[in-house]
Fold this protein.
Amino acid sequence: MTHDELRRIARRLTPAVACLLGLSACATNPVTGERELALMSEAQEIEIGRSLDVEVRREMGVYDDDALQAYIDDMGQRLARNSHRPDLDWHFAVVDVPAINAFALPGGYLYMTRGILAYLDSEAQVAGVLGHEIGHVTARHAVQQYSRATGASLGLLLGGIFVPQVRPFGSLAETGLGVLFLRYGRDDELQSDRLGAEYAAASGWDPAAVPEFLATLGRVEELSDRRGVPNWASTHPPAEDRVERGLATVAELKAARPGASWAVNRDEHLRRIDGMVFGDNPREGIVRGRRFLHPDLRFEIEFPDGWDVSNGKEQVVAKMPGQEAYVLLQLVEQPRGRTMTEIAAANMQGAGFRESSGGATTINGLDAYLGVYQGRLGDLGAVTMRAAHIRQDRTVFFVAGFAQPEPYAQLEPSLSASVRSFRSLSREEAENVKPNRLALYTSRQGDTWQSIAERQSGGLVRPTTLAIMNDHAVNDQPRAGERLKIVVAE
Ligand SMILES: [Zn+2]
């Protein structure tokens, strides 16, 4: 038999048999102890993690708080020492992202967003989430997922994930980082929930925190407005039966160590995240009601009332709830042309759009070209678009309101008003844009989530958000004397 024939046969064999025949790269799964077909060696796994880590740090940014980083890293290292891969070189970081998420790369690179830290209510819950992500690495789910997703084109994909592209009208839901939030299978998630509880328990934290945070994530999911921002809820299976199974695991783990004391450390966690930025960091632009302000780029724009605004790395998008109507803002990279008329023409033609009317104008004192265009956009098909190219100093902004032709006709006034609301911020206005932050508040008799959201948080956060952040179901109220996380303006 030729080597090629052997390989063809091997492909049809189960991984274990192929392993025995020595026909493929194999590895022992650190958790199950079974041999399995691995499309990458541990060295490759680490190499992939390391190169993606550079991109994650660049794209997401590491949250600027050394003490918090060290605290999370210490916890992570302790959990990892009690995991199935204690010898791996583990790395833990809090990334500067408001979405509620945690994720693991192959090779032992783990991240929590500051968004998820705000929603976790004790050190034991943080340990549970870290343990869950460690589980994805120790059980090599991350490797298998990347292997399956990418196969032979792994190198190609890794090269492509973060390569900055001029994609003025790429699929709106797609973000460059989406590939990181690969979906694991349901069984993988259940296994990670279990491993997370085991690692937390082995490190002295109360494993009961695992079903607690799963319940929190379930509540987040229920209230999620699905803005197309990837978060834990959108990449994980529904929480209900995971909570059930989690409770069973906890009972089992606790029965195995009768009389043991378990650390929860709620106050410690609250103290660590007191003052942490909540929601958008102004460095990347910040949403205030219907306004979007960017103090670094010194502009603001107003979106139609009630629309969901999502602030991505490369673009800001407002979407009308329940309708495929959008307002989008992004920079024009390397604008071609001297005048705004030339720049607009080159940019729109490049995107395959045809102008039906337009002209040079000014928008709030800035040189601009305002036009109406027809074209096609991914899943939406044919769209009509009101678009402005606006110059501020050396930067050219592209602001567009668009929808399919029929709804467009009705929405034209609000899309147009939004496009024309673009204006520069003065230096002083820019300096006054500050992030919202977490603070602590002890509830008093008669307080409700509603009253705390209004009085103590000045309307910056919804009552339901406060309830969920504080480990409560949305329909039960805070107890008097309870120490709570709230959101305040800086
Ligand atoms: Zn998971």
